[in-house]
Design goal:
The protein has seven helices and five strands. By secondary structure, the chain is an alpha/beta fold. A five-stranded parallel beta sheet has the order 2-3-1-4-5, sandwiched between helices.
């Protein structure tokens, strides 16, 4: 049986795009935690941030992630900050194999700033904010992930195939150690 696959990583790493492709390869249902949060509050992420602040958004995010524990047959793309709370890290660990989708910082920044839908980057100096947040989160991604995949120089289809391959190898290795 294919495991659930959980994609973590910073904004711009491609979690949603790669996750959709993994879903099409596996037949697992694709879920995006930001879309689930948005749906739960009937507002866009920027609107939630404006109305509730980051803390309110994080509360909704935690509730959504907790509701997924026990669900099988999914590929989950998490929001970049989902790893900030211990309760979220626990929920993500229980969901399945965790792949950290990463890329070079300049590439991440370019991807993340293609649209203005990133509330955390609505500052006087978006690049400094970006770098500070990335630096603060990097260790959490590394600690939580079962493996890291660098998407800097490959397309989404290639990334999906390689992440799926690594997830399957990890699952087989875990079964062999039991």
């Amino acid at each position: 049986m294919l495991p659930n696959i959980v994609l973590i990583g910073f904004m711009g790493c491609g979690k949603s795009s790669v996750g959709r492709r993994i879903s099409s390869l596996t037949g697992h249902r694709f879920l995006d935690s930001d879309e689930l949060v948005s749906g739960a509050d009937n507002r866009s992420i920027p609107e939630i941030f404006a109305a509730r602040g980051e803390a309110g958004f994080r509360e909704l995010e935690s509730s959504v992630l907790a509701s997924l524990v026990g669900v099988v047959g999914i590929v989950l793309a998490t929001g970049g900050g989902a790893i900030l709370r211990e309760q979220n890290r626990g929920a993500l660990r229980s969901l399945g194999v965790i792949a950290w989708l990463d890329a070079e910082p300049d590439i991440l920044f370019e991807r993340a700033t293609r649209s203005n839908k990133r509330p955390l980057l609505q500052t006087a100096d978006p690049r400094k904010t970006f770098d500070d947040i990335l630096d603060a989160r990097r260790t959490s991604y590394e600690t939580l992930a079962d493996f890291r995949f660098d998407s800097s120089h490959c397309d989404h289809d290639e990334a999906a195939k390689r992440i799926l391959d690594q997830a399957m190898r990890r699952t087989r290795a875990e079964k062999n150690t039991r």
